Amino acid sequence: MNLRCIQVIGVGLTLACVAGPTPAQEGELTPTNQLHYPLNPTLAGMLDSAERARKAGKWKQAATLYRNVIDEDHAKQTAGYQLAFVDSQRTPGARSPRRRFKGITQLAIEGLRSLPPEGKRAFRAAYDYRAQAEFERALEAEHPFRAMALCYELYPIATNAPRVLETMAERSLESGRLDRAKRLLERLLRHHADELDEPLWIQEKLLLCSIGSGEASAVRELAEELGAAQQAGAGQPSDQGPQVLLGGKLLPVTELVARALEVQAVRNGQRHGETPSLAQPRGDAAHRASFDQPVSVGAARFRPLRFARPQVHNGTSRSDMKIYMPSRPTNPARHQGVVSRGNLFLALADRIMAYDLNSGESAPPIRSVTQTYNDPNPKVLFSASLHQDVVLASLVQDVRKDQSFRGIPIKVQIPIRKLVAFDSGRWRWLWSHDTVLSKTEQANWSFPTAPVVHEGVMYTSAFSIEGWINCYVAAYDVSTGEPIWATWIASGQVEQTMFGEQATEPLCVPVAAANGVIYWSTSFGCVTAVDADTGRPIWVAEYDQIEVRAPQGYYASPRVIIWENNPPVVESGTVVVAPMDSNSFYGFDVETGEAWRQPQRASGVNADMKYIQGASDGRVVMAGGNLVKCIDVETGKLLWKGRLVGKVVTGRGFVAQDTVFVPCEDQIKVFSLSSGKPLATIDAEVTGNLAVCGEHIIALRADGHLAVYQNRGFREYKQR
Questions:
Q1: The whole model's pTM is what?
Q2: DSSP 575-620
């Protein structure tokens, strides 16, 4: 076969893959990037029938239809949870509307909860016996918590539903998982308050969880509400200020708040003998990079040291999609670390390294468990997370081989990354997904980002290449790496060679976790929210994608990716995303997935934006080039912007109380979060990605240099 024929066939295959099988609706322009979702029109039709029955007052029929939908969505023969179309919104100038979907089970649960008392009685008359049998099986299951979560999902308005939630909360309290217990108790009060015999007792448990979690503001609010309810119930006005009867003692609200602050102080390392840790590089699982303590950048603790060598590109611009030039200090920083026992842990593409934060001395070498790999992908965020003493990271375990025909790429190298766990207390490897998942359906999955860890469970994003690229959100046990659940969200495509093979590693960002929900921007045109306990999709919402074009001639046609790798940020009821495969950034309502959107870069408004710096008090700060912008998370409106004269933003900063710290080439610029007023310019030899850990401020620069600065504000905070 001659070369011209090969070219024609290759282009044809590529266009077929990019276009996909789904035609555009009449009157619409053809979508540039086709996405595949786990849609089920049959179950969506059953949901419509259930809605009509509910509106007509046919309670038994409505209850039966909703239950059948949930059973079908949980059937073992299906590929997992499925979605139903909800609505769409057209962006001016866009080729296709942005669609919004909801999970089939989620819609059925919402429908059941909307039933009036007569409808709930009809449901209970038909299904209470099944709900009780399912609950009893769950109590005896190998993993009772997950089994109870699925039981509640199957029978959310059964008579025993409050008992199921309360039992889950009690099991969580017994295992020390206070945040999980807190959100389960909140769900119990939100959906079943009128069914509880002693709602005040549930409120007391909720207050104890908040104290144990160190949430001072939540403790004050809950204590005042509970105290008022107790006094009203006893018919006794309080003459000594707000008080709460807790554990048989009458305690002032101020004392309970003080106890919560004490817990917070211990966690932050403010008490003598306590060593602060940094479990998530961006401060928390919601990636807010917001620290409730004063920060003042002081002197460097040691001379800057190099932890990694710049990556040198040794391919040709025509044959290699991933061109990563030797790093300069102004290049985008792509490393983040975590801190445990006074050591900073950094993940590179193929290894984990550790350094003493006070001296900069290298900790004992950590034996490599992967092949050596110099990663040329500039959009990978090398990061880690921490649970107690266990460091979790993504390392390259294998590389898909490249192949060419007379210099024309057929396949390119694509790394397959796996999650690994390192025990920093015993200084040994704990497990690797390369072996844990080797005999499962997830054996060929790649995990390009570090997971988010919360109370012994890690949540992460993943993809598999099976013609299309399938995108997943998954949960695993931290101690063993064993799967808990995995949910397929969507399938899409990246740039391809003329032979129809992927020409680049798929883009991928970390997930975020907040209030029992996992949020993820797929980098394939949509954002999703899934339940943390079961993996149930709550909603999926699309955004405007950069077009994936067919190859031009013999070579792939790469997209111009402007955004750096930014995980979703959850702040004040909104999840803010800056997808790498989009020219805009968006805010999605955490409950519904409804969105606001910032203009395309073509207007010049977002032309330089690269990083999400941090979020607090209903505001999110973004930066890039020589511009800093503060956005209202509820509306997407610009609150203020600041310019960096003669300087360029070099990484991700943070928010500390009412101040924003933005890294530049050799300085850190400080702005007021509330007004945008410039507050200070701090000279710093090394900047890049910044993080705060107690008395340390960590800086990781693009060219592989590390610096640790004193946090002078921490000493004042500790004394106070």
A1: 0.91
A2: EEE--TT-SS-EEEETTT--EEEPPPGGGSTTTT--EEEEEETTEE
Tell me the domain boundaries of the chain. 199-267, 290-719
Look at the alpha carbons of 11, 12, 15, 17 in this order and tell me if their dihedral is positive or negative.
Answer: negative
Residue type at 581 in one-letter notation: D
Q: Determine the 3-state secondary structure of 128 from DSSP.
A: helix
> What is the rounded distance in angstroms from the CA atom of residue 510 to the CA atom of residue 461?
6
Whether 422 contacts 391, CB under 8 Å: yes
Backbone torsions φ then ψ of 712, nearest 5 degrees: -65, -25
Q: Which residues contact 297 (CB under 8 A, 6 or more apart)?
A: 661, 668, 682, 684, 697, 709, 710, 711, 712
Which of 56, 72, 63 has the alpha carbon at shortest distance from 125? 63
Q: Distance between CA atoms of 502 and 325, rounded to whole angstroms? A: 22
Nearest CA-CA partner of 335 in 359, 323, 351: 351
Distance, CA of 184 to CA of 169 (rounded, Å): 6
Distance of CA 701 to the CA centre of its chain: 24
Q: Helix, strand, or coil here: 530?
A: strand
DSSP 443: T
- Paired residues of 40 in beta bridges: none
Secondary structure (DSSP) of 334-353 = -B-EEEETTEEEEE-SS-EE
pLDDT tens by residue, 597-637: 776 554 444 567 899 999 999 999 999 999 999 999 999 99
The angle formed by the CA atoms of residues 376, 381 and 384, to the nearest 5 degrees, is 125
Dist CA 310 CA 337 (whole Å): 18
Residues 298-339: tens digit of each pLDDT: 999 999 999 986 554 444 434 343 334 445 667 889 999 999
User: Which one-letter DSSP state was computed for residue 38?
Assistant: -
* Cα–Cα distance for residue pair 202/394, rounded to 1 Å: 40
> Distance (Å, rounded) from C-alpha 34 to C-alpha 550?
13
CATH topology of domain 290-719: Methylamine Dehydrogenase; Chain H (2.130.10)
Contact (CB, 8 A) for 277 and 693? yes
Query: In this structure, what token pair is assigned to residue 166?
Result: 């309360």
What are the tokens at 712? 């002078």
Long-range pairs for 327-330: beta carbons < 8 A, 24 or more residues apart = 327/702, 327/703, 327/704, 328/702, 328/703, 329/650, 329/665, 329/666, 329/687, 329/688, 329/701, 329/702, 329/703, 329/705, 330/648, 330/650, 330/665, 330/702
Structure token pair of residue 282? 């961006």
Positive or negative torsion for Cα 699, 700, 702, 705: positive
